[in-house]
Amino acid sequence: MTASVISAGPIPRSGSAAQGAIELRQVSKNYGDVIAVDQLDLTVRPGEFVTLLGPSGSGKTTTMMMVAGFEEHTAGSVLIDGTPVDSLPPRERNLGVVFQNYALFPHMSALENVEFALRMRKVPRAERRQRAADALDRVGLGKMGGRKPRQLSGGQQQRVALARALVFNPAALLLDEPMAALDKRLREQMQEEIKALQKSLGISVLFVTHDQDEAMAMSDRIVVMRDGKIIQSGPPEEVYNHPLTDWVASFLGDTNLIPCTIVERNGEEAVVDLGGLGLARVRDRGADGVNYAVSIRPEHLKFSTQAAAGNGCAATLLSSTNLGATVRHRLTAGGHELQLRELSSARGAGSGPDEDLWVGWDEDRAQLLVLES
Ligand code: ADP
Ligand code: MG
Known about the structure:
Layout: E1 22-31, E2 34-44, E3 49-53, H1 60-68, E4 75-80, E5 83-84, E6 95-98, H2 110-120, H3 125-138, H4 154-166, E7 172-176, H5 184-201, E8 204-209, H6 212-218, E9 221-226, E10 229-234, H7 236-241, H8 246-251, E11 256-266, E12 269-273, E13 279-284, E14 292-296, E15 301-304, E16 311-322, E17 326-333, E18 336-343, E19 357-361, E20 367-370
Parallel strand pairs: 3-8, 3-9, 6-7, 7-8, 13-20
Antiparallel strand pairs: 1-2, 1-4, 4-5, 9-10, 11-12, 11-14, 12-13, 14-20, 15-19, 16-17, 16-19, 17-18
Helix pairs in contact: 2-3, 2-4, 3-4
Bound molecules: adenosine-5'-diphosphate and magnesium ion.
């Protein structure tokens, strides 16, 4: 484990009363016939880490650019700390922005790049130097201020961009896929460091990624976007465990989707008919549609004995694949092909070849959802 180089001490806040609340009200953006963002309502509370998660082209960057003021919206309003900022240029919105490609000036040193953000805000020269040096220090680049971007690694450039976004004590940070160019290990390290930095500063963050693991690891709340719209929003575990549609369930990871018909709905619960898997009581978030299915994550299916099982069915094992930390089993049960994932250290599927196999799940792990397509 590499030690964190971003220091977690507080940056002294300037005298502003900024809390860092961001609010989008019915914000839309059209590019000709393309509706990039469609009547978006979104709130980031002070100190909250909110992630826009969606596939490429779902409108994440456009949304962020409208908050930052680099794109003009077609309709709606953006508010920061309760004040509409629609007519303010980016610089006056007091938001720190890290773009997808960092956008560092190649001819300026790291220190000059960070200082530039202060120069734009008319901070006196003498104060500028010191604050820029402090910000570089904070991201672990105190000794590299003299280097040009091309003399820095991808991760270091990313830290310079972060220092530049933080140096003027912004009300909130906007980060657009800031880790996209980094390799996996560095990306995970930066995720933890940015999260620690955000916590220690108590700063609001609007984060953009198409990487569901990254969204799960960092966010207080995930906002799932598709085709310019919000499909679902909630804390990571909630969105993961209780997806409203098959698309959300599949975008966030592997899942078993079992088509069903609804027998009865009563508030948080429903009774559904899973065909060959019988009747089951499942979680219900009230999503309305035409066709329904039940989602059960592979790690929430388990082998059991018929006597112990509440929900479940006799099963036939098709294959088992050891993936290192986990084993993936493919099986059929009640006419459905299912995936079950368990830790490699677990007992494993039917220890003997002739052992009767039964697969089951806990009621609160089965989520009723709408089949979108
Ligand atoms: P994401 O960041 O989620 O990948 P974007 O916000 O970049 O998505 O894009 C959303 C949609 O808007 C896409 O269909 C994209 O092609 C379109 N779009 C983005 N920028 C422009 C532009 N400057 N002109 C025309 N279409 C654009
Ligand atoms: Mg983008």
